[in-house]
Amino acid sequence: MKSSLMALADTAKQQTAVLKRLTKAQGITVAEWQLLIKLQAGFDTQEKLAVEMQLDTSTLSRQLASLVKKEKLTKEAVGRDRRQLIYSVTATGDNAVATVNADYERFEAAVFDKWPQDEQNLLRILLNRLNKSVDRTLAD
């Protein structure tokens, strides 16, 4: 039997593979999907996004440019010097996020289809406890 952390790592790899497949079907990457979600939540400038997502501005700038090119985002120059950019998610971007979210929810429902609700709740509790334990261990 695998150790708990090894089993968790294997599950994380499977989950990542599913997310890559779902996002690729919409013409975006997992990172771009996560970025679109933050933009929908109101983080509409590069500065706000960099802080929220803990990304350096060059990486973020490339991802934003890619999403603009894919017509998932629009950008508008504002301010006196027109150097501040405000990003907005397009209808195509909204649709991509909604489709990935719905497909992922279906995947998650299929995974836990045979699990009683009390076991799902217990798993959430244990995973949160594990996350806190790992955080504490890494902080020491």
TrEMBL record:
GO MF annotation: an example: DNA-binding transcription factor activity
**SUPFAM superfamilies, per this entry?**
Winged helix' DNA-binding domain
Domain annotation HTH marR-type: ranges: 1-132
Q: What's a single GO BP term from this record?
A: response to stress
**InterPro entries listed in its UniProt record:** HTH_MarR-typ (IPR000835), MarR/SlyA-like (IPR039422), WH-like_DNA-bd_sf (IPR036388), WH_DNA-bd_sf (IPR036390)
Q: Which domain of life is it from?
A: Bacteria
In terms of Gene3D superfamilies, this protein maps to:
Winged helix-like DNA-binding domain superfamily/Winged helix DNA-binding domain
Q: Which SMART domains match?
A: HTH_MARR
**What protein does this entry describe?**
MarR family transcriptional regulator
Q: Organism, per UniProt?
A: Lactiplantibacillus fabifermentans T30PCM01
